[in-house]
């Protein structure tokens, strides 16, 4: 892949191929490489993956790290890469960012795929106590492993992927790490999501404890037009790592090449 970075533009990778470009936005704790197993199954496609501001290779890009800033960054990356015909694919926090981007109705956007996405309307279980606990989930390699094995996944992952999850969750600016649990997760964006005017695909993991299918059905789908909900069996929240083949197939069916 060709890596490009400019001042104040997060690091991204753009692999040329057949359009529309698939633009991948990662989860809280992830990075551009979270999508590697999916991208590998989209060999001929034009693909762009982003390290959000404050995360991984973009850890030195200063804040703020708000959802609105991440949405602005996504539009800046698209402009920098000269991408003008694309589908947004956002996972978890990245799905909430994708909703905000799509709400601006940018030229060239064909659709959005929301994978275990943060819903437009915060779920009732997101209490202040939950937020405080979540804010400490990535405090140490041990706490990341605990969250990975008991909350984030429903399947056994190879050791290399387990190590990647720990490394990515720790490669973050402190303020970026806490922004999502303390602020972004409770941000109600229903007004924005209601302005989305392109087709949407919502993908849930059957055993997702973070964003359960019923939460997405009640707190996200009603605010989107032209929406289908697909549940991938046997998987938890980390769908790009747990079920990359099924996810790649769903993306391809929704946004075929050409």
Structural class: alpha/beta
Q: Helical content, roughly?
A: 25-40%
Strand content: 15-25%
Nearest-integer average pLDDT: 95
Major β-sheet profile: 8 strands, mixed
Annotation, overall tally of beta strands: 8
Count of alpha/pi helices = 11
The gyration radius over C-alpha positions equals 16 Å
Helix and strand pattern: EEEHEHEHEHHHHHEHEHH
Largest sheet: spatial strand order: 1-2-4-3-5-6-7-8
| Cα distance spanning the termini | 21 Å
Question: So what's the overall shape?
Answer: globular
Provide structural commentary.
This protein has an 8-stranded mixed sheet, sandwiched between helices. It has helices at residues 36-39, 67-80, 93-103, 128-135, 141-152, 159-170, 174-182, 190-193, 213-219, 239-242, 244-254, and strands at residues 2-6, 9-15, 18-25, 45-50, 86-91, 109-115, 200-205, 227-232. The protein contains 11 helices and 8 strands. With 258 residues, it is α/β, with parallel strands linked by helices. The model is unreliable at 1-6 (pLDDT under 50).
Could you give the topology of this structure?
Elements: E1 2-6, E2 9-15, E3 18-25, H1 36-39, E4 45-50, H2 67-80, E5 86-91, H3 93-103, E6 109-115, H4 128-135, H5 141-152, H6 159-170, H7 174-182, H8 190-193, E7 200-205, H9 213-219, E8 227-232, H10 239-242, H11 244-254
Parallel strand pairs: 3-4, 3-5, 5-6, 6-7, 7-8
Antiparallel strand pairs: 1-2, 2-4
Helix pairs in contact: 2-3, 4-7, 5-6
Primary descriptors:
globular; disordered N terminus; 37% helix; 11 helices; alpha/beta; 20% strand; 258 residues
